[in-house]
Fold each of these.
Amino acid sequence: MDVATRPAHVQKLLFKAATVWAFALLCFLWAPSFARAQDAPALPDAGATDLSGNAGADLGFGKLGDDTFLSILLAANFAIDELSFGLQVPLRLRMIDEEPTDGDGVEIRDEDWDEASDYLRIIRFIQWAKPGEVFYARVGELSGATVGHGTLMSNYLNVLDIDHYQLGVDTKVNTLYGGGELVLDNLAQPEIFGGRAFVRPWSFVDAESFLLGWSVGLSLLTDLGAPRTIDSDPATNVPLVDKTHNLQYTTEAVVMLGFDTDFTVLENEIVRVTPYIDNNVLAGLEAGYGLHVGVLTDVTLPADTTLNLRLEYQYLGESYAPQYVDPLYEIQRVAFPNPRFYGPDTLPLTKQAVVREAVGAHGYLGQMTVSPMGLVKVSALYRGSQRKNDNDLLLQLLVPTLAQVKVGVLYSKTGFDSFSDAFDPQGALFQAYARYNVYLFIDLIAQFNRRWRLVTEVEDPNFGNYEGVDEWSFGVGASFDF
């Protein structure tokens, strides 16, 4: 069969596959020869003077929504001196297409590669140094970015919509005299920016003084393309969606400014205590003000055991929201507090529209992270206020260092009314991942993700609204060090 006589869907599949694999080939051609690893794969510590790293492939079988997929991942990590970076080629091959069907036969999932920014998936990450060093920078998917004390941006995740990928930026500078932070949501089309600059005033007077623990900072948070109202068909009131599955809306930039100060009142080998005050303003015609007063406590115990605590009081003025950019912001910005609040005949309200009308209230926040012997890391955050549907919960479990097992679990629920709703799976984000090294370089892999997708099937009564989508897969992986 020549090219002209191949079915259209086959030609389409071949073209997509050739495009993705050709791009991947250019990335991997120059990689050194591989040698088999005798331990579970891990990126070598930064500081190596020679190029080193690892490479491998994962193969998984599972479901995304109602459809069944074969998932293929080729990946490689490299490290030289302070620089490390990872490349990958993630492919989903639709094996069983349930109604409503999107195509004929086996094909690469369209939504994964229909925008220019989707091809940035090839870049898994680019990183300089490690968190906590004088200068740290990372380009990649944001897995919980926080600016300052987290009163404007807290645990931000930039990839929640399964149909759209964003390559973000997270950088930090920390010196004796001061420093700064910068978070960007998407290099291809930046809209959300979080930044903070701070200074330690007494460092210019006496670098050995107790007052060196005092710092003052200025923060800026912007969403330049923040949705204000959802566009709809005047005749039917149905939301408008473009051909690449983007909801259409009118925009109005959100700009928030903050001034903060903190002072470490106690610091020794065991405990560090730092009270802080943040004053924030949501700019605009409906300006809002918020005050945050809290204390950070870090405890270091023998056997590499750590405990971090945070308690905070919040005064929430009218037209103000704390942690404006939070784990679920990418969805909340178009449907607040959650898509499940809106039926088929109701246009969702954007977060900006709801916050601009918010009443004044008092709130609180508690956060704890514990890491016994450095083997397991458990985190919990709960925030609430007197407002309706204004409670947030974040839970995280990481097992990062065991030789044979890697485990990660994340659960986030925001915008619920009472603690009894905290574990209602509707509207929650849930991610779980486990990797077990069974023999030499062979791993067993299991993962589950609950994220969102925009309903774009015209016949669906929820057209133009977001719905939760579950993705799970089981498979095997192989990796090699070089």
Note: The CA atoms of residues 413 and 421 lie 9 Å apart.
Amino acid sequence: MLQLPTVLVVDGDPAAASEMAKGLDRLGLGTHIVSTAEQALLSLSSRRFDLILCELRLPDLSGLALLRRIERAELETPFVGMAFDADVDDLVQLMRHGAVDFLSRPFRASEVEDAMERAARRQPRTSSLDRGEPMGAMSTGPGGPSHATASISQLHHSPSQSSQTHHTPSRSAGSHPTPSRGAPSLLSPRQAAQQARQERTRGAVPQPPGTAPTAEAPAAPPTIESLLQRLRDGTLELPVIAPVTAEILELLQRPDAGVDQVAELVSKDPSIVAGLLRLANSGRFGTTRGIADIRDACLRIGNRRALAVAQRIAVAGLYDMNLPQLSGIAEAMWLNVDVCALGSRQLSELLGEDDPDAAYVEGLLHNVGELALLRVLAALPDRIAPGAAGLEQVRELLESAHEHFGKAVLKRWRMPARFIRAASAHHSAPPGLEDRTGRLRRLRILLSWTMAVRVGYEYLPGQITPDPAPICAELGLELDAVEELFRAIEPS
């Protein structure tokens, strides 16, 4: 019997969820309603759904936290977020973690159907439609439910359960388990890389008794000098950003920029348009009148703030890496950048600077050289030592060369001089080349990064920061007040 496509609705408001189910039923869509993220995980562990429609504000976990757990399980079910008051930070995080769409509430039931069609077009791996199976059928392999179902069950276990002994079925030498058809791997990219190394070790040719195994000598780690030489030669691949971002920063530096200029410029990038429209329609502006025009959105947000938000949307995607060895560092680095940018804006306001939004963008871009180096190192995984030694290697390279790389990246992106200086000389400035305004900006950026690390947003062990007390003293700020400011910042 053909089963209806089924939507898992996750909403803490039972009455609203029931009304939503009625609308979806009229479209021929089945629904299963739960009110918490934990209930959603239990449901996902026992059956297959064709779409997850999830409110971002839930009684237990947030919708984003649920999405991250689903992502770690590598479950392929399309995820659509919904909320009355989502802002651009929520939307950026949704897209970074694999959501296929976001619906601003209230919405029509037909918009869910549209989201399902978009999800079907985007699915890169085998789906029930590709296999000729009815939508809504549980994917099973030779041994029962799919691996995706098992992985969600494992995520739902408490720490005490996960620490118990696991019994592995025995198999004959040389045999391998047969994966279920179309099921995603249970392993994260990092775990998959570790398993591959273990398989190579198990498959090594045994040595005669008493003979030391011959180990292949690891390649020498890259040196700072060699990387800088390749940077000068133009043989290193640097990150690429949307061309419109350079024009955005040029316009940001013009205090006379009008709304028509801003709207025309940001309209060149569809992802920026979508983010600004969603922000303009979020609850933070205290109005229910919907906006569908980018010019109206810029008016509601404010011209300069719209330009700063546009830059954030473009930069955030650069930290979304699929790097088995370094993805954790990239994710933590983005949190640091996010806090640094928000803190830089607030410090700029405290210091009475005339352009807090430009200060925000300086915080976003000042450490872009570290991002570039991380991508370079990701292309050389065999030359990074495992464990703590490798992390120390990465830290030393980033600390020593990131300003050189930051300058090269922003020049490649044709960014204005102010932001190139922020990336190339934020720890110290060449003697005699820094005026009072330049020094204030540099110290503000350095203090923002220092405080972000000190309040917990470090991304590499053993990171060394300058003492913030003298910086605060020179800027005329109280250290305790600055620390309180940064502890109150919530990254996306």
Note: The first strand starts at residue 6 and ends at 10.
Amino acid sequence: MFAPLRKNAAAFAKVKVGDWGWCAHWSDEMEISADTLWRLALEQGGARQHSADMAQTGKRL
């Protein structure tokens, strides 16, 4: 679904903030929620592993 945006920087740059600020919106067929973007950013930043390490040791964030 988002492949065209990966291949075309000009198309990616047309992003708008969706209604009420809850998504990144390119068209009615192409948008991604703020919650999904946040989760993906955490995963890419290593937060998933950090959380797993904390759960294993019994420590809290």
Note: Residues 3-57 form one domain.
